[in-house]
Amino acid sequence: MLSLPETILSLPPQVTRFAPSPTGRLHLGHAYSAYFVLSCARATGGSYLLRLEDTDHTRCRAPFYDAIRDDLAFLGLSPDRETPAQSTRMGAYQAALSQLQDSGLLYPCFCTRKDIARSVTAPHGPDGSFYPGTCRQLSDDERQARMAAQPYALRLDTKKAAARAGPLAFQELMHKPGSQTVDYNAIDDVVLARKDIGTSYNLAVVVDDAADGVTLVTRGQDIFAATGLHRLLQALLDLPAPRYAHHPLVVDDQGRRLAKRADDVALGTLRDAGWSAAQIMAEALGRLLQDGAKSP
Ligand code: GLU
């Protein structure tokens, strides 16, 4: 098991989850992530769930579902239980969207990526340009007319949502441990329902963590910046707030986060080349970007 910080070791039993998307083979970063999740569950006497995040049918592929289960089994990281895949929960996402829409917190957006890129007025947020707000300004009549004629996404009206929710914080146990105040200025009018799939990662992950009874969300530090938005959505949807532990990332030789397409670090490639589970885990731990959860 990994040696974990006291902030995690002192917790009562936690329900944790590993939530990969079946868009490719798992790689060394996933191996570390699953090991971290399992360690948190075992250290607190809780449980470890696997959830396949497959809302994006344009990118998920059938063979990767079993490949993920098989890679985890090979590493000795099989979950205690697998929860329903996201594709089976579209009704729950629709219900959450309706709840937000009935509260007047969503607006339809007809912009294409090109429209947004062309806008020179977009201010910048932590993840690049903020949405310039083009469709936030439309009149009700214009909205109705365009909704009847064109595909649209649904965006969160963050200003209204922040006013509704009031000040919020989330508990982080690993990356910047302590209570983190949600900074509404850093939250974009994010798309909660994509034109093509009718939902989004940010909406689905919040709905699912609540449905699965997850009490400790563990994932890479790259997602830390999205956690304020997740906390906001939990408050708006009356869902419980889990604790968070964002762990360091496994990186490539240039110190960059591993990409899904990085075949040289895919577990399938390493297994085919004869690597043992212990060798794979040692390689993953050796490539951690920073300290925080070192192996004993
Ligand atoms: N499906 C997401 C990913 O693979 C999981 C993120 C999360 O754990 O919240 O990055």
Q: How would you briefly describe this protein structure?
A:
The chain has 296 residues and is of the alpha/beta class.
Q: Would you spell out the secondary-structure blueprint of this structure?
A:
Elements: H1 6-9, E1 15-18, H2 28-44, E2 47-50, H3 62-74, E3 81-82, H4 90-102, E4 106-109, H5 113-118, E5 124-125, E6 128-129, H6 140-149, E7 153-156, H7 158-165, E8 169-172, E9 178-181, E10 191-193, H8 201-211, E11 216-220, H9 227-236, E12 243-247, H10 267-272, H11 277-286
Parallel strand pairs: 1-2, 2-3, 11-12
Antiparallel strand pairs: 4-7, 5-6, 7-10, 8-9
Bound molecules: glutamic acid.
List keywords for this structure.
3-stranded parallel β-sheet; binds glutamic acid; 12 strands; disordered C terminus; alpha/beta; 3-stranded antiparallel β-sheet; 36% helix; 11 helices; single chain; 296 residues; Glutamyl-tRNA Synthetase, domain 3; Rossmann fold
Description:
The protein contains 11 helices and 12 strands. It is an alpha/beta fold and 296 residues long. The strands form 5 sheets. A 3-stranded parallel beta sheet has the order 1-2-3. A 3-stranded antiparallel beta sheet has the order 4-7-10. The chain is globular. The termini are close together. The model is unreliable at 291-296 (pLDDT under 50). Bound molecules: glutamic acid. Glutamic acid binds at residues 19-21, 53, 205, 219, 223.
